[in-house]
Amino acid sequence: MNIPEQPGIAKPVNNYLVWSIISLVITVITCCMCYTLPALATAIVATVFSTKVNGALNAGNLEGAQQASKNAKLWNQITAGLFLAGLALWIAMFFVQGGLAGQQEAMEQIRRALEQR
């Protein structure tokens, strides 16, 4: 059943702040061990747009709040895509470099190089 919109009552505007913060935290944690550094930049942009939504609503700028919400959603989607692509690339590189045995060998080479100093 469709309920008609009543004039003067604005529907709530989603700020996507929770999604933005979760994206930001995950990309900060993983940016050094995965290829997800580009996702960190877009997560920051998404968080900025998310925080603008409530400010625009409080100022009575419904159109600005809706645009900020739309931008926050878009940048969160871009962040998710970049994160997943970076994670997939990291997993592929892990197996290309020999998996766990390859990683252990690389660590052993680093240890030997440090001991020679």
Q: List the uncertain runs.
A: none
State the helicity in percent bands: over 70%
The portion of residues forming beta strands comes to: under 5%
**Strand and helix order:** HHHH
Query: How many domain units?
Result: 1
Provide structural commentary:
This protein has one domain (17-115). It has four helices and no strands. The protein is mostly helical. The longest helix has 35 residues, at 62-96. The chain has helices spanning 17-30, 37-58, 62-96, 99-115. Helix 1 packs antiparallel against helix 2 (37-58), helix 1 (17-30) packs parallel to helix 3 and helix 2 (37-58) packs antiparallel against helix 3 (62-96). The radius of gyration is 22 Å and the shape is elongated. The chain crosses the membrane at residues 16-49, 78-102. It comes from Lysobacter hankyongensis. This is CD225/dispanin family protein. It is found in: Membrane. Keywords: Membrane, Transmembrane, Transmembrane helix.
